[in-house]
Design brief:
Layout: E1 4-5, H1 13-27, H2 32-43, H3 49-58, E2 66-70, H4 78-90, E3 94-100, E4 119-124, E5 127-132, H5 136-145, E6 156-163, H6 175-185, E7 190-195, H7 206-227, E8 235-240, E9 250-252, E10 261-267, H8 273-308, H9 319-322, E11 330-336, H10 348-353, E12 357-362, H11 370-387
Parallel strand pairs: 2-3, 2-6, 3-5, 6-7, 7-8, 9-12
Antiparallel strand pairs: 1-4, 4-5, 8-12, 10-11
Pfam families: SurE
Biased composition (Polar residues): 42-53
Keywords: Hydrolase, Metal-binding
């Protein structure tokens, strides 16, 4: 299955109709009435909020529970594609997708304000899908608002599968975790799923194995949400080890304080030609604007003083500041892994490094209350026991 944007009917409807009439007249067509019916039918398919909602409702079985998927890496990422394929293949759920158009994996819990975002239908076999020009949180917020889909709320929101761990303090940067958190804020149960991808070891097929690993937990969550026994005050962060098929099983974990060390590297124009090109363009533009500024400054000063006093000689000093060149500096942020001294095996990154699937309950509170921890622990134990 592939995911591609559907971007049809880019021409104005009136122009399309005129072109169709010209083509028909050249072919000697006499079925004008039938063509008018076809044209009106084509016009009725123009995208709008109402038709999007109706299409979403008509294309799915309303008797099945609605599951909404999003992610942080974009609608074409393999983790999302394989997960959608697996859920559609089961035939048990009404699968909807609302995901970023491009990679927003380190966008955190950011939203788009004072700007208009674009939403485009996407072709994903067996699912109703849209790609959004905003962040992961934008996607979840829009999907749950009722403005895009015909249903009010899905049964479960799944954010993932993300490429790279979201353990420890990385959850604050993670777009995939933010998607699940936004769902919880809106009162919808949610899961975030990440694969501990390592450049030297991981392969694209690992995403399929990761789907197989987490699918039983997803099925258990949907089953128990319908029964009303799924934890309501937290969402679950699921971290899958680097070799999913060789995992040691699920382990309930606690959020750690682990974080890779941030490393800001200066980017020189010599090492990065693109930066030099950007700088030269900006400098040439700056010189042009400075010249315009000088001319405008001189002209403006002349007009004002000529109006106030006649026969006064004008000397413009507008060029004094514009000759000063501002030097831009460029930096690039990278995270460098470092050894952690904490040896508590119940922490998320320790369990993940040991080969376990780390399942961490996360709440909206900075501190996890003991009753939430207990409730999540009881559910995870019973869910995993039931799937064995």
């Amino acid at each position: 299955m592939t995911t591609t944007s559907v971007k049809k009917n880019m021409l104005p409807p009136g122009l399309v109709n005129n072109l169709q009439e010209v083509l028909l007249s050249r072919k000697g067509g006499n079925n004008n009435n039938e063509q008018q019916k076809d044209d009106s039918a084509a016009d009725s398919t123009e995208p709008s909020t109402s038709t999007c909602n109706e299409d979403a409702a008509d294309g799915n079985d309303s008797s099945k529970p609605v599951v909404l998927l999003t992610n942080g890496e974009g609608i074409d990422s393999l983790g999302l594609v394989y997960l959608v394929q697996a859920l559609v293949r089961l035939g048990l759920y009404n699968v909807h997708v609302c995901a970023p158009q491009s990679d927003k994996s380190v966008s955190g819990h950011s939203v788009t304000l004072r700007e208009t975002i674009a939403v485009t239908p996407a072709e994903i076999d067996g699912a109703t899908a849209y790609e959004v020009s905003g962040t992961t949180v934008d996607c979840v917020s829009l999907a749950l608002s009722g403005a895009l889909f015909s249903w009010s709320k899905p049964l479960l929101v799944i954010s993932g599968i993300n490429r790279g761990s979201s353990c420890g303090h990385h959850m604050f940067y993670s777009g995939v975790v933010a998607g699940a958190r936004e769902a919880l804020i809106c009162g919808v149960p949610s899961l975030s799923i990440s694969l501990n991808w390592k450049r030297e070891e991981s392969q694209e097929s690992d995403f399929k194995d990761a789907v197989a690993v987490c699918l039983p937990l997803i099925n258990a969550a949907i089953r128990d949400i319908e029964k009303g026994v799924f934890p309501k005050s937290c969402f679950l962060s699921i971290e899958i080890p680097t070799s999913p098929s060789a995992n040691k099983g699920f382990k309930l974990t606690k959020q750690s304080f682990w974080r890779s060390a941030p490393s800001w590297q200066a980017v020189s124009a010599n090492r990065h030609p693109s930066a030099a090109h950007f700088m030269s363009n900006q400098q040439s533009l700056g010189i042009q604007l400075a010249q315009l500024s000088r001319d405008a400054s001189a002209a403006g000063a002349a007009r004002r003083l000529t109006t106030q006093r006649k026969n006064v000689e004008i000397e413009s000093v507008g060029a004094a500041k514009s000759d000063t060149k501002k030097v831009k500096k460029y930096f690039r942020l990278e995270f460098v892994d470092r050894e952690q001294e904490d040896t508590d095996e119940d922490l998320d990154f320790r369990a993940l490094d040991s080969g376990f699937v780390a399942v961490t309950p996360l709440s909206l509170s900075p501190q996890m209350e003991s009753d939430i921890q207990t409730a999540a622990s009881d559910w995870i134990s019973s869910a995993l026991h039931g799937e064995q």
